Amino acid sequence: MTLLLGSLQLGLIYSLLAMGIYISFRVLNTPDLTAEGSFTLGMAVMTVFVVAGHPFIGIFFALVAGALAGIITALLQTKLRIPPILAGILTMTGLYTINLMVMGGSSNVTLLGVNSIFDLIANILPFSYNVSKIIVSVLIALIMIVLMVLFFKTNCGLCIRAIGDNEKMARASSMNVDGYKIIGLMVSNGLIALCGGLIACDQGYADMTSGSGMLVVGLAAVIIGEAFIRRRTILAGMISCVLGSIVYRFILAAAISTRIFPAYAMKLLSAIIVTIALAIPAVRYYRENYELRKRDGHAGN
Amino acid sequence: MAMLEIKNLKKHFKKEGGIENHILKGLDLKMDKGEFVTVLGNNGAGKSTLFNLISGTILSNDGSIVLDQIDITFMPEHKRSKFIGRVFQSPMMGTAPNLTVAENMALAYGRQKRKNLNWALTRDLKKLFYEKLEESNMGLEKKLDSPMKDLSGGQCQVVALVMCTINPPKLLLLDEHTAALDPKTAVDVMQYTQKIVEEGRLTALMITHDLEDAILYGDRLIMMDSGVIGQDFSGEEKKNLTVEGLRTLYHLKE
User: Fold this and answer.
1) Contact B106/A158, CB-based, under 8 Å?
2) What is the mean pLDDT of the segment spanning A168-187?
3) Across the interface, do A156 and B112 touch by the CB < 8 Å criterion?
4) Which range of residues forms the domain containing residue A236?
5) What is the CATH number of the domain that holds B226?
6) Do A153 and B120 touch (CB under 8 A)?
């Protein structure tokens, strides 16, 4: 039960990561690898503010820090015309130094003995610590879904969606494509950094290595969610991110609690889940062709 | 009064090895307001390059383009597309396939004065789009909330046309916009094109490879030939053109 609730709560927080990945990979249609760096950046910024006693201001600055990382990648992509994947890797690599700098040169900052937002809100709410944490996580996920759905209904949001859908058309209908790409990646990385910050609060420390593999984790959530919800509206997309993220945590929890896998197998499991999910269309194609060929063999008999 | 005035337009591309490939070699073109000009020419005559230069996808090496007294030679593409509408050959090119018809139209509608944080689609706008689509008589108004990719090629082109003209552009560029359609649909789309160009008194340039269309529609016909305008027919001269006559002109060049 504890494991189940824990997975639910982690899944809710990680849904922000999935939303960020969804916005770059699905809405903007650009593979953005900044995620790994901006996730840790959010962690670092958040811990600095929490340690200084300002957890709520930390939320704001984690968002801003992520958005800044997004701007860098977007500028590399648009103004300097560096291929999106490489642009993301460059920002991510550069961020490693920035993250260490933010954390004062140490690769690990603990939040022991200081109050994170979870502690502060749990003190107000008349529930147990774990239940309060779930309530806070649900609220955060809900607020983000609402904000994203509203944002993508504005002209700015619609332009971002159009650019991901047909960039040529976007240019011909007088959109400042570069500008909207920058905004899109800002929103995406802002969400990812906030997710990192919240995870730091949740686990009680920030660690330089936490970001590695986050892209695959987020992508796994997006893909799993899409298996449940097929509709491609933004609302459906955001809900599928939350759902996918929670299911992904359940799968991991199940895999680990059955003791088939050691805890350190998480990253490999994530990679395998994403690989399988991405391979489904190809497998479907092979099977269809196989069926067609089999029919031909029967005719020969 | 000239709506579009192109002077001495030149464009060459550098090929590997530094050889210059001259596409446009000093093209001059003057179009009056409300003129509907059809453009003929061989592959490689520079028709598409001309359109790309006018719409700003690429910049010219020499010469100038003036649209309605404004020099747009070096204006960025997204700025000039505020008043230049363009319909492409491929039905999917001018629209966003996964967005709904209404969303596509909202994007086009907001072209001239986009306020970023306003709602993209309001009830009033949807009503306007419904009416605009109803005018095309193709039953498109019922598809307002379907994704663009569910429409047929002809329907796509009609929506693209409505999108380009919902705020009347100063110049409408039609880039072989019926070439990918079946003959029956092509006729429907051409007639609809004629209708909106006439009703809106639009200034339009249309590339086509269909000699009959080139004669039938528009009030002036130009033939491009290796980077300049080779022939220019208007008024009576154009009315007297025949498909055979045009075909001979094509062959003469070879």
Assistant:
1) yes
2) 89
3) no
4) 2-300
5) 3.40.50.300
6) yes
List the CATH number of the domain containing A202.
Answer: 1.10.3470
Is pLDDT of A300 > 70?
A: no
Q: What whole-number distance in Å separates Cα of residue A44 and Cα of residue A59?
A: 11
Enumerate the residues of chain A whose CB falls inside 8 A of the CB of residue B96. 161-162, 165-166, 169-170
| A40-72 pLDDT, tens digit each | 999 999 999 999 999 999 999 999 999 999 999
Chain A, nearest residue to B97 by Cα:
A165
Query: Is B96 in CB contact (< 8 Å) with chain A?
Result: yes
Residues of chain A in contact with residue B110, where contact means CB-CB under 8 angstroms, are 155
Question: How many domains would you assign to chain A?
Answer: 1
Distance CA B254, CA A103 (A): 73
The answer to whether B81 contacts chain A (CB < 8 Å) is yes
Measure the CA–CA gap between B33 and A183, rounded to whole angstroms: 39
Neighbours of B252 (CB within 10 A): 9
Residue B92 to residue A166, Cβ atoms within 8 A:
yes
Report angle CA A115, A116, A122 to the nearest 5 degrees: 85
Residue A173 has pLDDT above 80, yes or no: no
Q: How many structural domains compose chain B?
A: 1
Question: Is B34 within 8 Å of B219 (Cβ atoms)?
Answer: no
Cα-based angle B87, B78, B37 (whole degrees, multiple of 5): 35
Q: CB B120 to CB A158 under 8 A?
A: yes
In the structure encoding, which two tokens stand for residue A146, read together?
A: 């609402």
Q: What are the structure tokens assigned to A71, written together?
A: 């701007």
Distances in Å between the Cα of B2 and the Cα atoms of A87, A151, B86, B176 are: 46, 43, 20, 24
What gap in Å lies between CA A275 and CA A207, rounded to an integer?
A: 27
Helices (H) and strands (E) in chain B, counts: 9, 10
**pLDDT average, residue stretch A188-213:** 94
- Candidates A23, A34, A246; CA nearest to A144 is A23
Complex prediction ipTM? 0.82
